[in-house]
Amino acid sequence: MIYNVKGTLTYAEPTFAVVECGGVGFKCYVSMTTLKELPSPNQEVNLYTYMSVREDAIDLFGFYTVDELEAFKLLISVSGIGPKAAIAILSVLTPSKLSIAISSGDVRSIQMAQGVGKKTAERVVLELKDKMVGIGSAAAADVQSVQSVASSSDAQEAVEVLVSLGFSQSDAATVVGAMDKSMSVDDMVRKGLRQLSSQL
After folding, report:
1. What does each C-alpha distance from 188 to 69, 144, 168, 198 come to in angstroms?
2. Strand (E) or helix (H) holding 20
3. Of 60, 126, 52, which Cα lies nearest the Cα of 82?
């Protein structure tokens, strides 16, 4: 198993990057999240990797961070999610945002990935709800906020109102989860609107 490749980035396009190490160019399939972090060609880069071995192909997948690699491994553990679908999900959601989406049951955000339908997205939420904690460490506080929504019917109602106004389940649950649960639904919605609107 190749854990990482470190060398010169010789080529990159939306689906893969080539890293040259010791005269050998390794083609690594990458997500848009990793692609955005890559340096300019001919600069040094380090990618954490996962090797997929099938009867008809051996593919190498590259990730800019360990968090993204770990999220990828969890995604492909879900029945019906192959490496390409996992890359598609990580192209629309960073590991931190994926953690929040799963914690809040935000199926719609996961569905935004190319080739991922509603049933598959629901399976991701169901099977990874307790496993994504700790992936994307920057999201730990937000995940706790999201989980706290379940303890308050008013908070749940406020989230539903914000979602009906066009905000994502993840964003609505994150802002409402951080609020004082003694607030009224109307106050939560008003405050949530202010915070979410300022992020647009």
Report:
1. 36, 18, 16, 15
2. strand 16-21
3. 52
CA geometry: angle at 111 spanning 174 and 92, to 5°?
70
Contact 178, 140 (CB under 8 A): no
Q: What are 170's two structure tokens?
A: 């993840």
Q: What's the pTM value of the predicted model, to 2 decimals?
A: 0.80
Question: What kind and span of H or E run contains 125?
Answer: helix 118-128
Tokens of 61: 């997948």
What are the structure tokens assigned to 15, written together?
Answer: 């689906």
Q: Of 17, 61, 24, 23, give the one whose Cα is nearest residue 40.
A: 17
- Predicted confidence at residue 136, as pLDDT, reads 61
- Burial of 21-48, coded b for 16+ CB within 10 Å and e otherwise, reads eeeeebebbbbebbbeebeeeeeebebb
pLDDT in tens, 80-122: 899 999 999 999 999 988 988 898 889 999 999 999 999 999 9
133 has a pLDDT exceeding 70: no
Query: Tell me: the pLDDT tens digits for 8-26?
Result: 999 999 899 999 998 999 9
Name every residue whose Cβ is closer than 8 Å to that of residue 85 and which is 6 or more positions away in sequence: 75, 113, 115, 116, 120
